[in-house]
């Protein structure tokens, strides 16, 4: 069943039996495994040709994609999806152009597959090193964001992997419109169209079957709400690359440049509310709190941001609501911000260690020793100095796009790009050597 053949709306899949969905998923898995062997052998030129074709098709089909997205937005509003989810769901001409640009950027990146590193000559005469190889079949489960369909397809293709993509029912029309573009690009480049398969059944049972098929799926990447990621992690029989939430902090140090601190603190919160790299807690060093918080309070008010502060914050910003213990642990994904006045960099680091999610944290300071201390001691996948947390993104990091963000410490950490979608195997070069 191709993406173009979708006829069943998500709500009607409840009539499909478990056995039928299992058979459907196994069929997808078998096709993905066969395609993975093919794309792993594809050379860089063939993969890049498919990516450049995809970028052109996305731009050419922008109107069709927007029409499909309008259907999803209409249904989303009718279903009373919250503002953050609607923001992630919505496409426009600029977002489609960015999607195509991301595909081109991935095409222009070095191909990691087959790269050999760390070759060393051993006393026995053999050479030992490592080679980068594809993971195989990557299962990706995501909600709302239709751009993930193109990003995931491009990253998996360039890294020599096959992909099974399961988007949310709220974005089904958008995802399938993009899927048709991907299928065309693959076929035009003589690669198996099954290299990237977008599920045309959005029933939640597909997730359970996908994460329970280690014979077909090598790794799963869930992108969505904390409950989705937690459920996938708990039930998966295959490795999971994930982050549960994004409780990101900006710490304004006593030696911060006020001309840098104000724009960074505003941008980190207000540039977009519904993203995992948006600041949720602002930490301000006590000696400068009364110098920066009044102006920040005024600007946040202009943006309609609700403030929740500690006792010392509320002495300066009396209109702020009292912050509770839960506020420090909450990823709002909304125009709400927690603010705490702290006693120096050690206090800020301790707060982040207790309440943070190991996603992204930033310090604003002109003090080099404190900047280095923050970089060294904050245990997050991205740690920044004098920059907005909104830069924690695969595109901004030069990865072309990202398949997700990992806050785990094994294999991949932070935005996961091409290298994160490969593994390494040992290679030994000899010339008739025996032991």
Description:
- The protein has 435 residues and is an alpha/beta fold.
- The protein has helices spanning 18-41, 44-60, 62-78, 83-89, 93-108, 147-158, 172-188, 205-210, 226-235, 258-270, 286-302, 311-316, 325-328, 344-355, 368-377, and strands at 116-121, 127-134, 137-142, 162-166, 196-198, 219-223, 248-252, 279-285, 306-309, 321-322, 336-342, 360-364, 382-385, 405-406, 414-415, 422-429.
- The strands form four sheets. A seven-stranded parallel beta sheet has the order 10-9-11-8-7-12-13. Strands 5-4-3-6 form a four-stranded parallel beta sheet, sandwiched between helices.
- Strand 14 and strand 15 form a beta hairpin.
- Helix 2 runs antiparallel to helix 5, helix 3 (62-78) packs antiparallel against helix 7 and helix 10 crosses helix 11 (286-302).
- The chain is globular, with a radius of gyration of 23 Å.
- The protein starts with 17 loop residues before the first helix and ends in a 6-residue tail after the last strand.
- Residues 1-12 have low confidence and may be disordered.
């Amino acid at each position: 069943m191709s993406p173009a053949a979708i006829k069943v709306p998500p709500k009607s899949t409840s009539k499909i039996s478990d056995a039928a969905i299992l058979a459907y998923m196994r069929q997808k898995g078998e096709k993905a495994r066969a395609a993975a062997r093919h794309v792993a052998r594809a050379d860089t030129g063939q993969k890049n040709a498919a990516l450049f074709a995809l970028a052109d098709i996305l731009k050419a089909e922008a109107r069709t994609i927007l029409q499909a997205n309008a259907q999803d937005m209409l249904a989303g509003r009718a279903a009373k999806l919250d503002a953050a989810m609607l923001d992630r769901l919505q496409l426009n001409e600029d977002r489609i152009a960015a999607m195509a640009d991301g595909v081109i950027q991935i095409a222009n990146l070095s191909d990691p597959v087959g790269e050999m590193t760390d070759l060393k000559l051993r006393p026995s005469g053999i050479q030992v090193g490592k080679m980068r190889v594809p993971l195989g079949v990557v299962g990706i489960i995501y909600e709302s964001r239709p751009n993930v369909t193109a990003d995931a397809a491009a990253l998996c293709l360039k890294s020599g992997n096959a992909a099974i993509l399961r988007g949310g029912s709220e974005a089904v029309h958008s995802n399938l419109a993009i899927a048709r573009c991907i299928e065309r690009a693959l076929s035009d480049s003589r690669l198996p169209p099954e290299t990237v398969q977008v599920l045309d059944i959005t029933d939640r049972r597909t997730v359970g079957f996908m994460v329970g098929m280690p014979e077909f799926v090598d790794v799963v990447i869930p992108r969505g709400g904390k409950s989705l990621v937690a459920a996938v992690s708990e039930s998966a029989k295959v490795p999971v690359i994930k982050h549960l939430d994004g409780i990101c902090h900006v710490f304004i140090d006593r030696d911060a440049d006020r001309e840098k601190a104000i724009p960074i603190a505003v941008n980190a919160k207000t540039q977009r509310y519904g993203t995992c790299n948006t600041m949720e807690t602002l930490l301000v060093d006590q000696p400068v709190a009364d110098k920066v918080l009044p102006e920040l309070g005024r600007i946040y008010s202009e943006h309609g941001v609700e403030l929740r502060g500690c006792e010392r914050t509320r002495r300066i910003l009396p209109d702020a609501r009292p912050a509770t213990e839960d506020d420090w642990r909450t990823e709002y994904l909304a125009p709400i911000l927690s603010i705490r006045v702290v006693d120096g960099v050690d206090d800020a680091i301790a707060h982040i260690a207790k309440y943070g999610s190991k996603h992204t944290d930033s310090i604003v300071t002109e003090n080099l020793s404190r900047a280095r201390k923050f970089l060294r001691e904050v245990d997050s996948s991205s740690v920044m100095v004098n920059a907005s947390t909104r830069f924690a993104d695969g595109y901004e990091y030069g990865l072309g796009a990202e398949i997700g963000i990992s806050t785990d410490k094994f294999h991949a950490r932070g935005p996961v790009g091409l290298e994160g979608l490969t593994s390494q195997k040992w290679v030994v070069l000899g010339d008739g050597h025996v032991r």
